[in-house]
Design brief:
4 copies of one chain form a homotetramer.
Chain A: E1 4-5, E2 10-14, E3 21-27, H1 37-47, E4 64-66, E5 70-71, E6 74-75, E7 80-85, E8 100-101, H2 107-114, H3 130-146, E9 150-158, E10 161-162, H4 185-200, E11 207-214, H5 228-237, E12 242-247, H6 258-261, E13 265-268, E14 271-274, E15 282-283, E16 286-287, E17 292-298, E18 308-312, E19 317-320, H7 331-353
Antiparallel strand pairs in A: 1-2, 2-3, 3-7, 4-7, 5-6, 8-18, 9-10, 9-11, 11-17, 12-17, 13-14, 15-16, 18-19
Chain lengths: 358, 358, 358, 358
Amino acid sequence: MGNTFGHILQLTTFGESHGYAIGGVIDGYPAGITIDMDFVRKELSRRATNQSTFSSARKEVENVTFLSGIFKGKSLGTPIAFVVQNEDARPSDYETLRDVYRPSHADYTYMAKYGLRDHRGGGRASARETIARVVAGALAKTVLLSQGIHIQAFTSQIGPIALSKPYTDYDLSTAESNDVRCPDRELATKMQDFLTQTRLASDSAGGVVTCVIKGCPAGIGEPVFGKLESVLASAMLSIPAAKGFELGGGFSLTNKYGSEANDAFFEKNGQICTRSNNSGGIQGGISNGEDIYFNVAFKPIPTIATPQETVNMQGDNVIIETKGRHDVCAVPRAVVIVEAMAALSILDALLLQRTNRI
Amino acid sequence: MGNTFGHILQLTTFGESHGYAIGGVIDGYPAGITIDMDFVRKELSRRATNQSTFSSARKEVENVTFLSGIFKGKSLGTPIAFVVQNEDARPSDYETLRDVYRPSHADYTYMAKYGLRDHRGGGRASARETIARVVAGALAKTVLLSQGIHIQAFTSQIGPIALSKPYTDYDLSTAESNDVRCPDRELATKMQDFLTQTRLASDSAGGVVTCVIKGCPAGIGEPVFGKLESVLASAMLSIPAAKGFELGGGFSLTNKYGSEANDAFFEKNGQICTRSNNSGGIQGGISNGEDIYFNVAFKPIPTIATPQETVNMQGDNVIIETKGRHDVCAVPRAVVIVEAMAALSILDALLLQRTNRI
Amino acid sequence: MGNTFGHILQLTTFGESHGYAIGGVIDGYPAGITIDMDFVRKELSRRATNQSTFSSARKEVENVTFLSGIFKGKSLGTPIAFVVQNEDARPSDYETLRDVYRPSHADYTYMAKYGLRDHRGGGRASARETIARVVAGALAKTVLLSQGIHIQAFTSQIGPIALSKPYTDYDLSTAESNDVRCPDRELATKMQDFLTQTRLASDSAGGVVTCVIKGCPAGIGEPVFGKLESVLASAMLSIPAAKGFELGGGFSLTNKYGSEANDAFFEKNGQICTRSNNSGGIQGGISNGEDIYFNVAFKPIPTIATPQETVNMQGDNVIIETKGRHDVCAVPRAVVIVEAMAALSILDALLLQRTNRI
Amino acid sequence: MGNTFGHILQLTTFGESHGYAIGGVIDGYPAGITIDMDFVRKELSRRATNQSTFSSARKEVENVTFLSGIFKGKSLGTPIAFVVQNEDARPSDYETLRDVYRPSHADYTYMAKYGLRDHRGGGRASARETIARVVAGALAKTVLLSQGIHIQAFTSQIGPIALSKPYTDYDLSTAESNDVRCPDRELATKMQDFLTQTRLASDSAGGVVTCVIKGCPAGIGEPVFGKLESVLASAMLSIPAAKGFELGGGFSLTNKYGSEANDAFFEKNGQICTRSNNSGGIQGGISNGEDIYFNVAFKPIPTIATPQETVNMQGDNVIIETKGRHDVCAVPRAVVIVEAMAALSILDALLLQRTNRI
């Protein structure tokens, strides 16, 4: 029931972390689009774990195989299925965790829900599932770019270190030039130092990803329950470890007066624009043509190398010490996943908007 | 496309602020439930505008009429339709706004989307639409209560005044005893003073609603795209003026170490419990049996009595001064709407969970 | 769960036969369409029961009230809700049937499903529910006509009397000129005589409705599960008393050779056409530009004035004799409902097709 | 948009006939079910093409690989993905058909819809896609059998040769003992002879599949648009070459009186039963506990070895002669696909019914 995202453009994902494969099916992808395999691989490599010292040591140079829906390099309009095999899986790493519920992981809740679970590496709850989102996101971006819509996310906070200036003060394209994906070079170094310290302390850290969508036309989003911010919030909160979402001014608007928070309209070259953008590019659930931007909060990765109190399947209180290969901080890699989910959301809304008038 | 919420329990709402009526259809409501009309009316009166000096002067003692789905006081299992007529509508109040786009309202975006709009009182984008959600929420709460699930929201912040203690330090049932719905009596008075000042300054204010769900069994929520937090985020961001959502520790977790943020499991009377609840009762998208709690950020009401710069339908830069009857702050009334959307989300997830095992 | 039809254009219906009202909500209807209220009323009067001596004596000059979604005569793009009150309801007619399950009615199955039921006039299972479909169908037809798509259904069989010639041999516009809606004047008279005899025998009759859709462009329908014939079959089998559906040559093709059944393509004025149309205008689930046509089988109305063996709620074998006001044959009125469901199906498919290419 | 079937139990299929693979994803499958791989393979072999002389010579001993959702032989409650590689594909067989539209195939309509197509073996429109349905159907049957629900389909007509007795007169288990899957041994031989003659004549034949579902409890099906017959009709008409569906008495009821067609209820051992079963086990869209049975009409296979008039992509009138390996009659293999779609429909309805009462 819960493994499909979208209304027209529908991504269904499947796969457990240490099962045979991870993959997805994209239905409703427009026909006739040239699929750029290099771009798909590039996006996957942006997500890959072996990119920095702050990520898991698990080698994930993913090899995606497309099974259907593409013919002579173009989308057919039929479902595009793809798989990525789980080659470097080491289930034995997890044998000691077979009977124990790791704190703040989904081990216990999956058991409560389904009555059984694949205990290896989190099974379905593993962030490895997001590989499928990144593949589908790459395909969605291809269409959006052809429509002049550009999506970029970056790290705006890790632990206590946060950008103090608005995103408009940065050249966002520089974010990819450092391992933490922060467009502020100085802060990036501080973030890296913080993560090194955190790793040495056998601990983990959280942070915030900010996403900016430029070039989105006014008019997309489906009130009242398919409001664009509602769709984006749903998309972002479906990412592992995400705990919060705020659009535009978000929580900071709660302490502003209406006269401060309102975005005045003005006319510029025949376009209707706003002087400020506290709304984050969406009003009443519909895009207004300004930049759409939002923040996503990520909790620290729950897997840490220090001993923790917990309970096993027999209900005994026990102490666990997690081994295996894990990230210190999910945020830099989450940047790519946030972009992918944003791309799927925006393209779906764009396609839906085509049905609103005859 | 966008006016239905839920998968099994489906609420479809309809109605413009100054059209003939507001209403909804609830499909998938379990059969055989005794409908408590007094409770429905009580919930509607909690939402009504005439309850305090901080709300719009528009008289809204709603009279809901049920059209179907109920027979001899019990739900039939068939769709429950209901309407609330728009009796005290004064469309003439809005005549001056027919051609102008109010800042941070949905006037412009509805025009951009549909090519025409009902300019009276925001039309479909009016918060009046939420009447239908409150009616449906009341019916959902009835079922949840019979299962031991209790939902209560309250005001945790208005403008600069915010609760500093966690919700567990308060007797939440006292929140309803003051106009701002804050469980801290002292802060409630300060909030009321702040709103009085804000009204005098012809301005408006925002704030935060916190919602607590007690008694929800472990196991509900549908990973990976129907995660319970994903559904709740979608539900909350569909409420007018909502700009942010955070589950459990939310954004504050971004600046914590994993060792601080993790919720240790322990066994208590054969139950698996957690020592802390930074997760907000949900792990991996599935409830874990602890309290589910979350915050929703509301921006200040965009309608203010001070002159504002904007643009009219002809594209001219103009100054508008809004009259009409409006709230100073949406937060106290939003409390009821947040509860309603939470109730719909939880009941839907509860029904879905019944299909996960044979 | 089951009261919504369509993907983009979504009709949700509600209402029991002798409850407060019957109605519906249409979501996803294109914005800016001029609503022709006279046409809606005309379609409703085509469905009404008082039109002929073969229909129920229940007076049904329906008064539809639109509650939302229309402003200054045009669709807003927001949900269009409408209600028809149940004015001439005589629940007392049904008091004797409160505890008894009428043969081949839904009394028993509703009880088995929901554990309770509204016994008055069939409750939700009454054909009166189709009023909502006819209203929505009228609105869908308005859009389709603007696109050059014309839908007409007619009676092709009542009891043993059936058209022997293909529909292309008739002027279909003449079907509306007689009470049974048959385009063959001679057969129409025979059908009327047959129905008069059937009524005198206190019995009821079934028949076949044929529907023809002209002007539908090639390319609509969504393989593989949203094939156009799959959608149409689902739509038609949702009509009360419908027991069968066949597209184009249908069941008669089962006894043809491929060389007879195949529709040869040829070029005509730059158009691709077919020499025959056994396919019924759909190939591989997608329209090919030829007429779409299909038959729908209706069983005899189960309510008959002769005594019948059955069981009551206590499980006792009893004899019932049904009184009340009932049709002898549903087919002439079903013509309008078949058209309405076809219009909803085709418009939905047309809107979906807009999302298949960028 | 159109490649997913079901509401709770959702099958998404993918794959073109001569692409890399055919496959599917099953979401919403109950957790904890033991998957019987031998049964899956047995069902696939029932569908396979090399089973008789009347089927295509293409070797299809399918090797299904499950990618996810199963752990230690049991379903996890997470999506079950599976693939079948297209090993014996000979795309060169189809090179001559690259530019031409085969009569009564989907070549032209796919082109009209998507603007491009995979011309090899029908691409997505190939019956090879139904492999995924059979795999999913096998898994659905496993659950249904554990609930005492048994589904069996058989050939009731091929060309002019049809069963004259009702299905209740036969031992249906004997149907699998002959190549045409007909439970009447004598007629089976006649059908085989007819098909041999048809093959010699370079022609093809159609027929009828009858499906019987025993043990289905009363109460499943979701009125009014999710009526069980509506779902079954949609499921059946989504099968390639299906042109008609009739439930119970179906089209034959159109020529019966109500007094003949009605199914009298009676009490037997505390069960409510019906004396006849013209309703086909469904009344008002809900199962009544009797056998559910229906017929599906299949047109002759459009691929024939005789020259046919048609049009090419350039719009020229041409003559084509189809080579390649093709069945003479789809009906015997369709038996398995009909069962699979019935199983998916019934299990989905069964799961939905669990949400109708608290």
